Amino acid sequence: MADDWVDACAADDIDEEDVIRFDHGARTFAIYRTDDNVYFATDGLCTHEQVHLADGLVMGSIIECPKHNGRFDFRTGAAKGAPVCVDLATYPVKVEGGRVFLNLG
Amino acid sequence: MPVEITPRDYSLIGLDAKLAVETGLSAAQWYACPVPRKRLKELMKRKDGPAIRDTLIWFAALVASGALGVHFWGSWAAVPFFLVYGVLYGSSSDSRWHECGHGTAFKTRWMNDAVYHIACFMILREPTIWRWSHTRHHTDTIIVGRDPEIAVPRPPDIAGILLNLFALKSGMHAFRLLTLHALGQLTAEEQTFVPDMERWKVTLVARIYLAIFACVIAACLLTRSVLPAMIIGLPSFYGGFMTIYFGLTQHAGLAEDVLDHRLNARTVYMNPIFRFLYWNMNYHVEHHMFPMIPYHALPQLHEAVKADCPPPYPNTLVAYREIFGALYRQMSDPGYFVKRELPSSAKAVPYNHDTQVVAAE
Q1: Is the peptide bond before B155 cis (omega within 30 degrees of 0)?
Q2: What pTM did the predictor assign?
Q3: Which domains does chain A have, with CATH numbers?
Q4: Distance CA B62, CA B58 (A)
Q5: Domain residues of chain B, as ranges?
Q6: Residue from A16, A69, A85 whose CB has the most chain B CBs within 10 Å, to mutate
Q7: B268: which DSSP letter?
């Protein structure tokens, strides 16, 4: 399990209440920072269509897809209504030494 | 040897639908003008204030014009008031369902939903069907066989456009679909974009709509007057002409099957009254490129991207000179379309004018 932690970015790379894209191998993820400095990670593409959520808008604990405005709670991955019907996968996140790590195991 | 252009199949279950998927035109990557993330976040920021203000003005104008129309009912003095009421009801509802359907007009979700449902009823667009149809429109904008909202297929149906100035064709179609949906059925095309889990909503809302119209008809019979229908129902028809006037400027006569909204959509400058009625949908290139930007921020977005876009049309009259010319020519030459000139700095975009896909015979 410990080996599955991946160094993704510096904690300061993400603004408060914002999201960035993180590509690892052939996969893409979205890493979020809330306005009270808690970090979360989900799959990077909207489950409705193949659109990068990192281009979307973070509002509280909601990420809104930039293409069709589908919304997810990025803490749980829960889809919050049409046009998104399928939840996002989420990943454990830890911050150590000013770096953000994702557990992709 | 000249390529012979064959008629396109605009249905969502035909040859062009299959071709669009096979050639990668469907659900493709579209061009977006570069806007710094920080600026984009500022523009995306949601507010309740502008939409609450505009909605209060809209409702107040509806009530005032409707009340005066009723007051003067039976005399010619009622005509201008019903004209105003009809446009507010049958035409302004177009932009309201649109912006609230995107969930961007208000910051508060239930306000978007409430105005969305009211406006959908006013313009006879069933909320679930149109939410999903518009989702597809944004995925595959003017991609033949994929976009259910191509207003002017080629060759253009001029008689249909004229009838739709008073929603005669679209309104009758809407009532046919309402009946079908109330019976729990969807068309084959609707089944391609409405998910199974949403279909119960279609049936429920269609039954509610028909029940409301039945009540209006009953009220007309009881009062032996058409006046109740002048308030609810008929304004979708007699007040719908501005929907067409505004709506045709969006895409009519422009390219099909391109992956760049600068080539298949128009931004047209409009006066403040039109922009209030249309909730800034005249910034249509910008809206398609960044659909999460609220209507009240579109003028600022326009300033941020206009150097990377073709010049906007200075007013609707200039836009219509182009549209009339294009549609007239398309009647005899369906392959014709208006080529928008991109700024010289524009990046190459796949499927631009010179690589347009044409269905094989």
Answers
A1: yes
A2: 0.91
A3: 2-103 (2.102.10.10)
A4: 6
A5: 15-355
A6: A69
A7: B
